[in-house]
Write a structure and sequence with these properties.
It is a single chain. By secondary structure, this protein is α/β, with parallel strands linked by helices. It has 7 helices and 7 strands, in the order E-H-E-H-E-H-E-H-E-H-E-H-H-E. It has a single domain, classed as NAD(P)-binding Rossmann-like Domain (Rossmann fold). A 7-stranded parallel β-sheet has the order 3-2-1-4-5-6-7, sandwiched between helices. Helix 3 packs parallel to helix 4 and helix 4 runs parallel beside helix 5. The longest helix has 26 residues. 42% of the residues are buried. Bound molecules: nicotinamide-adenine-dinucleotide. Its EC number is 1.1.1.100.
Length: 248
Amino acid sequence: MGRLSNKVAVITGGANGIGLATATRFATEGAKVVITDVNDTNRETALKKIGNGAIFIQQDVSKEADWAMVFEKVIDVFGKVDILFNNAGIAAMGDAEHFTAEQWHQIMAVDLDGVAFGIKHAIQNMKTNGGSIINMSSIEGLIGYPNLFAFTAAKGGVRLMTKSAALYCAQQKYNIRVNSVHPGPIHKPEKDNDPKEQKLVSEHLPMLPLGRFGETVEVANLILYLASDESSYSTGSEFLVDGGYTAQ
Ligand code: NAD
């Protein structure tokens, strides 16, 4: 308890999945949490689950103007931002031979532009007091997957833009750390009865040394470490939580 006392955290795509699990974990450790999401249908359920006075701001991470609005509101309500978890992301199957321009630009807009704008606005707002920026990549930001062409391109970009931003902040002596996280396949309880998800699970299980998908809280625990001062000597680094997938 209290690992994030007196910290203010912004989590994008925080109404569901890993973002919501992380927001909940942060709040139990004392953080004031702001979740943003393009979709507000799960807003009330999410805020109830997180507790500790969390607030919701509707935001499309791919629009830079939305980022300026988010930081303005958060500073208005809480006075500062200490942590940004750039989590929002979308995935769509598509291979290198058949992807469409529309699919490509949609994934780049959310998974790459969204993280880039987040980093830029976080640096501008954190440079006086310092902070921690955590960017969501994937194991697909480190290794290839034949049917996730655009997704791997975007997540690989997140991995390297993290390093560039981390070096820039260190050079400027901003006391802002920037790291990326790379989960393997994560269990989605809401999709347990979805035949598409079951197919994905049966394809991936043989490749997972730990023999199971990860749980969202297992990703959240890693992000908590990166958000807290416990990770004060880590910047520009990539952190895996993949059940051993990439160790093979
Ligand atoms: P999810 O779909 O459960 O949650 C993502 C959230 O992002 C949703 O609430 C969605 O509404 C929101 N979102 C989508 N587009 C947005 C936009 N333009 N602006 C703001 N919010 C937007 O997904 P998840 O599985 O929790 O994944 C979260 C992140 O983790 C993603 O970046 C994903 O690529 C990454 N990831 C997931 C897995 C996995 O197995 N689930 C593995 C590796 C990486």
